[in-house]
Amino acid sequence: MEPFEASLPADLRRLRGLRHDLAAWLERIRVPEAQRDAVVLAVHEAAANGIEHAGGPVTVRGARDEDKVIVVVTNGGPWTGSSVSEDLSRGRGLTLMRGLTSNLDIATEPRRTTVRMRIDLVETENTTSRTDGRGKPGRSTLSSCTAQ
Questions:
Q1: Among 14, 35, 67, 120, fewest CB within 10 Å belongs to which?
Q2: Short-list 78, 74, 72, 73, CA closest to 54
Q3: How many independent structural domains does the chain possess?
């Protein structure tokens, strides 16, 4: 399947276009809608952090490998570190990314930070009826995934 690649300058206003292009790609490679939204939000957070905290360009690369999507977000500037903020609505990007992905790995170097996300694709109750093996409704795979 076709890979995804986008490069953005250090401009938060460009994130809207990234979200649109990424969502369209995820639809083309047949990622379930609920997971598309999660991937788009996680990637948005990683790219926004790269722009805000490193001040350099951001590159996003994605690929589907059978039942998973891998997305790598790399920034090209030195990390300036997080500043402590009085605004309690800020500073939840990493927590959000961890909750939206199956695996999150962040590697920092002096002039680059790389965020690698793996999203395991699951079927939802909307696409497949699930049972517990005795013909009774079972727990949905999506619920199992998000509960971890």
A1: 67
A2: 78
A3: 1
Asked if 45 and 97 touch (Cβ cutoff 8 Å), the reply is yes
Please give the pLDDT value at position 56: 85
- Residue at 119 is within a domain: yes
- pLDDT-derived band at 79, boundaries 50, 70, 90: low
Tell me the pTM. 0.76
In a domain, 40, yes or no: yes
**Residue 2 CB contacts under 8 Å (≥ 6 apart), including other chains:** 25, 28, 29
Q: How far is it, in rounded angstroms, from Cα 53 to Cα 48? A: 8
The reported pLDDT for the residue numbered 92 is 79
Is residue 27, in this structure, part of any structural domain at all?
yes
Residue 95 lies in a domain: yes
